[in-house]
Amino acid sequence: MADQAEKYVYRVQGFSCANCADTFEKNVQRLDGVDNAQVNFAASKITVYGSTSKEELEQAGSFENLKVRSEHASDEAEPTHQPSFLQKYQTIILAILFFGFGVASQIINSQENLLTWLAYATSMVVGGYTLFKAGLMNLMRLRFDMKTLMTVAVIGAAIIGEWVEGAIVVILFAISEELEGFSMDRARQSIRSLMDIAPKEALIKRHGQEMAVHVDDIAIGDIMIVKPGQKAAMDGVVVAGHSSINQAAVTGESIPVEKNLDDEVFAGTLNEEGFLEVRVTKHVEDTTISKVIHLVEEAQAERAPAQAFVDRFAKYYTPAVMVLAMLVAVLPPLMMGASWEAWIYQGLAVLVVACPCALVISTPVSIVTAIGNAAKNGVLIKGGAYLEEAGSLKAIAFDKTGTLTKGVPVVTDFSLFHPGDEDELLAKVTALESRSQHPLASAIVDQAKQANISYQHKKVQDFTSITGKGIKGTIDGTTYHVGNLSLWEDVLGYAIDPDIRHSLEDLQKQGKTGMFVGTNKSILALIAVADEVRDTSQEVISKLHDIGIDQTIMLTGDHQDTASAIGQQVGVTDVQANLLPEDKLSYVQAFREKHRKVAMVGDGVNDAPALASSNVGIAMGVAGADTALETADVALMGDDLQKLPYTMKLSRRALRIIKQNISFSLGIKLLALLLVIPGWLTLWIAILADVGATLLVTANGLRLLRVKEENAGR
């Protein structure tokens, strides 16, 4: 069984097309000792289950001169020599030169001259050697792909004496394959840039000495020194110093983040100003950036529905084309007495024009480009399927706390009902609240600290917490109560003045939580605490509506008044309040049944059931959170909701480009094939249609590299 065999991962250099990767995969699967093999064309990797050598793998890829090396650079030195332009394209250049000699000889000596024939034949052999090698091997195995089609077409052209057009077919097909390879290389470049983010060495303090250590040799617990202007090589926590860190490489945040004692630092992030000592917490293969690279490569290998359709279509399309070409070549001469030479030529042209190069490359180049672009901008899309799903969404549900709001309560109002010293009263309230574990208590303590109000000298006696209602305690001989309306009416038996009650109701309508402060004799003040809405939430919701998201729903456990106030403030189209986690799950499931597709945006932990149940689960602020990284369909690495419109925009454009590419690839071939009816289809038209289609779909796919966050709006 493959899952019981040893697993080895290798990087492959030299893939020119998806079909070649497929051929390589099948060749490796036939090797002795190999139980199974899986090629990731997008990441240029192969995973081998079983036992084999790199030499045997390269032999399996000799049809395209593939080179294989271990996945980790430390296992094997990176190739240092980069081929020059002439070395890289020498076969195409030689083929063009020999073709030029043929054209010159034809002008001087005539087309029938031996020198002319030799020049064209040499051009075909030089330019098409790897094509013929793979195509003839496929024919012997009765395996039909684009190289099989081209091999038959070129050999047929030579047999009927169309040497000029046969040589043109070979040269342009070779150029087309190089263009395909170039476009995939451009698309993969985003991953290569991620790999280069983190340094390969770090300055480690051991036994009182500083030494440069390779990341593979750094242990958990080592103290890493990161000087100003240096990048962190490993994940860890700050144990000494403070600084601002540029985390754009990991989270996409453009503004540097302050790092102090016990704060997390990610590999690949840039220390801008301070001197930091960081305790390493993860091995190099487990760092956040390493996990992102791995997940992006796996995501790019995932076949999107459109790509799965193309793969299934091409499986039956290519043999059908060969049958069609044969019928075009033989039926008119047999049934209508037409010229054999003319219709065999037409049949060969059908083979060329029907070559599925453009169709096969149309989807993967778009998906790889989009996912790579997203990763560079701090958004991890876990596969082509989720990219397509996100591109067709019409509804998005949001968790409230920590997603649309900051998730940290703050004091918004402090109103006295009687003349007095506001700071003195706040100091007493803070002294009481500092003994409480309630989340709202921390908001009051933070407010006092920001206002530089000293409260530690206030001695509290007889402190009591009244569950669900408030607290009480004695300061300077006076008992003070802080709590909600229920504390004052149900426990203390106060008759609340209508004006005071009205003040509380006004605050609640604004989405705030009100608490009364008073003594046994009277209510002295009203404190309001609220979970502040993120500064960007309203803008994000507005952009999503502009992009084409019809429904935005806020899901929260808060009571209806608070939820409605926040919903109105941010601009969502619907608010669902008083929900438990299981209620959020039920709502998402019901919404899917009614409206088919919905995304859920949350923090990736509390909203896990609803995230899993949605078509696309989007977790935000997951940098360093391994569980959320693994489980979310889309992960916004930074705690930044503004990445969401960019993600939707990118997904929509990717889906549109994929549809355009598939439609154009099939449309241009159908149009060219219609030229067979009047007998107008030539090999020139056929190859130009094929190369032209490949050029256009690759250029169209690479447009996704230009989608930027600032252009997230329409």
TrEMBL record:
Domain HMA: from-to ranges: 6-69
Compartment(s): Cell membrane
Annotated catalysed reactions: Cd(2+)(in) + ATP + H2O = Cd(2+)(out) + ADP + phosphate + H(+)
Molecular functions (GO terms): ATP binding; ATP hydrolysis activity; metal ion binding; P-type cadmium transporter activity
Transmembrane spans: 91-108, 114-132, 316-336, 342-361, 657-677
InterPro entries: ATPase_P-typ_cyto_dom_N, ATPase_P-typ_P_site, ATPase_P-typ_TM_dom_sf, ATPase_P-typ_transduc_dom_A_sf, ATPase_P-type_domA, Cation_Transport_ATPase_IB, HAD-like_sf, HAD_sf
Keywords: ATP-binding, Cadmium, Cell membrane, Ion transport, Membrane, Metal-binding, Nucleotide-binding, Phosphoprotein, Translocase, Transmembrane, Transmembrane helix, Transport
An example Gene Ontology CC term for this record: plasma membrane
Topology in the lipid bilayer: Multi-pass membrane protein
ATP-binding as UniProt keyword: yes
Pfam families in the cross-refs: E1-E2_ATPase, HMA, Hydrolase
Name of protein: Cd(2+)-exporting ATPase
Organism: Natribacillus halophilus
